[in-house]
Amino acid sequence: MDDAKTITITINGKQVQTTEGRYLLEVCRENGVDIPTLCHHEAVSPAGACRLCAVEVGDGKGRSRIVASCIYPCWDGMVVETESPRAVGVRRLVLETLLARAPKVPVIRDLARRYGIRRPRFPLENHQCILCGLCVRVCSEVVGVHALSMQGRGAEKECGTPYLSGESTCIGCGACVYVCPTECIHMEDRDGVRTIWHEDAGVKTSVRQFKLKYCKVCGAPLGPEYQLEYIRKKVGLPEDFHDLCPGCRATGRRVAATT
Amino acid sequence: MTHDEGTTRWGSASGWPLPPGQPLPTNLNVYVANLVPKEEYFAQGHRACQGCGLALAVRLALKAAGPDVIVATATGCLEIITTPLPYTAWGVPWIHVAFENTAATASGIEAALKVLRRKGRIPDRKVRVLAFAGDGGTADIGLQALSGALERGHDLTYICLDNEAYMNTGVQRSGSTPFGASTTTSPAGKKSIGQQTWKKPMPAIAAAHNIPYVATANPSYPYDFIQKVRRALDTEGPAYIHAYSACPTGWRSATDLSIHIGRLATETGVFPLYEVIEGRHVLNYDPPTLQPLQEYTRLQPRFRHLTDDDLARIEARVRREYDALKRRAELDAKEEKRLKREAVRARRAQRAQRTASDP
Predict the structure, then answer these.
(1) How many CB atoms lie within 10 A of CB B287?
(2) Residue B223 or B196, more confident
(3) CATH code for the domain defined by A6-114
(4) What is the DSSP secondary-structure string of B277-326?
(5) Cα B156–B10–B263 angle (5° rounding)?
(6) B256 — contact with chain A (CB < 8 Å)?
(7) Distance from the CA of B285 to the CA of which of A7, A118, B12, B349 falls in 20 to 30 A?
């Protein structure tokens, strides 16, 4: 059934058994080795975008190299050093560039403090978005609506909905807001309207508003109309399914059963 | 290297979904369910009754805490159901202590970790301390230990799992039993209405210790629950969470209604969801209209002897307390805004003075 080969690798001098082809970061975390990441999430495929998970990998005989552990598959006999001076140096450099790009983001500041970085040697910018693409992957892999994407190249690269205007396929579920490591995607429910936007360097883009739907009986908020409609179509529910909240639906069923 | 921020946990260090003090976003629960940690630290196969709200609360709390945590638990249902010799349901380091000293043990663990870290005996990374106790172990028996720990300011998170009586030993009333509930030591009958005193306001007692974070949480609202536990763990200093936990065995309610009863508890105003952050009250979920109390009580036979008059009396008090809480939250929000405005004004005045005196 399981044809993956069991292999032995060495992490920081400790021998660990795992299966061939698993990603190194998962194996390290399973064994209590802490590696910082920003763009990794277990629910979506790894991308190797933030490069913070850099570790040193070799065969134990001499040459070794730096890899991003979240997208590096394990092989038999590999020797991994997560806290070697070389690996930590690379991580520090990555952090320095991240800190220069987004000096006000609490997560990055915390990590920088942990690695002893006071002031990056690069000119400071004022971004919040670090272009890790986690929101893009969540939108396509978990939610499945592909409303977000990366656009532009190099220094012009940006994250958001197409043309950075409100995207019509977005259903307003807020999954991107939930995963964003630097909290640059915002969501607000006010007066029956949900607003979602991406804010980077003080510029609001991809702003989109959704009308919220409420339970017809108790008036409890249910969610944006678009999202409920999307779910209803996907699952094949009756048209009036989202008129009631789950509680009122259960009460109705019980009333119907007892009378 | 200083204390790390628990990077094995996904998401941001400040504990998304929202910055503290904002109302709960509606309906986050469709896709976000795929994004909560998949790792289970509370194993299935434990001995909890069908429909137990406590097991759900602990599972969510441990998911929020991640692997770097040490748990201390008082005697009670939680200890009985998770550790029948020779098995254990705990996937994290766990210690069981006597009924009264959960908070004292947790503060000891926290102090020991601090010292061991300072002496270099253990790696210098942040390991959090979590204490679980029932309502009896918090409101009655463990109150002085808890008060001491909160007052000393240890960096720990204390979660009270409130099922409103001593369920483990056979449904005896506790300080946390609500007025009118029938238990084995406060039985309802001709001369008794059941429990004759009102529920002890534990979150208010904890908040009165001036600790940085107090919250009420309800496993029927799982994302709010996870978020609050994470926020409590990220808080420097003591944090207290009062968790609602439905108990079909003790409340004589149907086992498939625990989540529904939990929701109703919040929707009727019996168990409002709120936070007290640095003394500032925030109401997390304010239903457009409070449901009638009868919706909540009629599903629980422990209240079935109550007459309409009794219910009206209880409902009046519930509404009054809810309104007082809401008013308090509004006042605190106003005060916060005023302070912010004043700070901005003061900064501006300072700058103006500096430019005036500096030619």
Answers:
(1) 18
(2) B196
(3) 3.10.20.740
(4) ETTEEEES---SSPPPHHHHHTT-GGGTT--HHHHHHHHHHHHHHHHHHH
(5) 70
(6) no
(7) B12
**Cα B85 to Cα A113: distance, rounded to the nearest angstrom:** 45
Tokens of B161: 């799992």
Q: What residues of chain B lie within 8 A of the CB of A180, using their CB?
A: 12, 16
pLDDT at B145 over 90: yes
Give the predicted TM-score (pTM) of the model: 0.84
Cβ contact B26–A194 (<8 Å):
yes
Say how far apart CA B304 and CA B181 lie, in whole Å: 9
Among residues 31-50 of chain A, which lie with CB inside 8 Å of chain B? 32, 34-37, 40-43
**CATH for the stretch B32-314:** 3.40.50.970
Q: According to the model, what pLDDT value does residue B200 have?
A: 94
Put simply, the answer to whether A114 touches B1 (Cβ < 8 Å) is: yes
| Subunit contact A174:B263, Cβ cutoff 8 A | no
Instruction: State pLDDT tens for residues A132-177.
Output: 999 999 999 988 888 899 988 888 888 888 888 876 788 888 888 8
- Kindly write down the DSSP assignment for every residue of A64-87, as one continuous string: EEEEEGGG-B--TT-EEESSSHHH
**Environment class of residue B253 by beta-carbon count within 10 Å: exposed (0-12), middle (13-18) or buried (19+)?**
buried
CA pair distance B44, B42, nearest whole angstrom? 7
CB contact under 8 A, B27 and A43: no
Map out the domains of chain A as residue ranges.
Answer: 6-114, 134-258
- Alpha-carbon distance of B2 to A111, in angstroms, equals 10
CA gap B146, B168 in Å, rounded: 21
Return the sign of the alpha-carbon dihedral for residues B296, B297, B300, B302: positive
Residue B146: which of B70, B202, B94, B71 has the closest Cα? B202
What average pLDDT does range A221-236 have in this prediction?
84
Burial class (CB in 10 A: 0-12, 13-18, 19+), B194: buried
Q: What is the pLDDT of residues B306-316, one digit of tens each?
A: 999 999 999 99
